Amino acid sequence: MLVVDDDTTVADVVRRYLERGGHRVVLVENGEDALRSAAADPPDLVVLDLMLPGIDGLEVCRRLRRDSAVPVIMLTALGEEENRIAGLQLGADDYVTKPFSPRELALRVDGVLRRSRAAAATPAARTVDDGDLLLDAGARKASLRGVELPLTTREFDLLEFFLTHPGQAFTRDQLLERVWGWTFGDQSTVTVHVRRLREKVEATPARPTRITTVWGVGYRYDPARQ
User: Fold this and answer.
1) What residue ranges define each of the domains in the chain, with the CATH number in brackets?
2) Other CB atoms within 10 Å distance of the CB of residue 20
3) Rounded distance between C-alpha atoms, residue 11 and residue 8, angstroms
4) pLDDT tens, 65-121?
5) What is the average pLDDT score of the chain?
6) Whether the Cβ atoms of residue 224 and residue 201 lie closer than 8 Å to each other
7) Which residues, in sequence order, are CB contacts of 179 under 8 Å at separation 6+?
């Protein structure tokens, strides 16, 4: 596991809590070292502070996502909502706001890893298709008109959930619980991921026909093929 934070006190506390949970932890203090470490020894998960010297956390996340689907949990300061949303748009899986409880972070890490490993162990039997959109649950791949979609782990989970629950409206809280496994959390996480998913599966993301908004409720997946 890779922890990236230039605050050595915070990084050391995080390391100790994660090591107590049985994780092997590598600490780095800047974005350049984070990218080098991830390339040389791919981690199971990255805990990434957004405010880093040199290459900032957003750019690190963007470069990681270009080459890998490794789960990323962001560390953001209170009041950095724009950066937090930007990180989610780049494909981060979760975030924790500073100051935070190390125990909460450890629980978030365990939750993200559990979902990631469960997804990797999904049997290869199930495929779901909706016209020109095809999802292979076993291979963890989805394609549109024959072209593979560059989906993050969470985007894939959300698309799979929508495809297997067509025509049903879900609130953001319900999606947080059913897809993220959270019983509490920031609903903007769902909003950002729906927006990113629309950009990949909709012909005109600003006027979606598949992932539609149900005003006052949340979202519904409307199959293209009836």
Assistant:
1) 2-120 (3.40.50.2300), 127-221 (1.10.10.10)
2) 11
3) 5
4) 887 878 899 898 866 677 777 887 787 888 888 888 888 888 888 888 877 776 665
5) 87
6) no
7) 154, 157, 158, 161
Q: At what angle do helices 81-89 and 188-201 cross, to 10 degrees?
A: 40
- Taking only the tens place, the pLDDT of each residue in 176-204 is 888 877 666 678 889 989 999 999 999 99
Contact of 167 with 222, CB cutoff 8 Å? yes
Mean pLDDT of the region 126-153: 89
**Residue 102 to residue 121: CA distance in whole angstroms:** 28
Q: Whose structure tokens read 């095809």? A: 134
Q: Considering the entire predicted model, what is its pTM?
A: 0.66
Q: How far apart are CA 27 and CA 9, in angstroms?
A: 12
Dist. CA 27–CA 49, nearest whole Å: 12
- DSSP string covering the chain, please? -EEE-S-HHHHHHHHHHHHHTT---EEESSHHHHHHHHHHS--S-EEEES--SSS-HHHHHHHHHHH----EEEEEETT-HHHHHHHHHTT--EEEEES--HHHHHHHHHHHHHHHHHHHT--TT-EEEETTEEEETTTTEEEETTEE----HHHHHHHHHHHHSTT-EEEHHHHIIIII--SS--THHHHHHHHHHHHHH-SSTTS-SSEEEETTTEEEE--S--
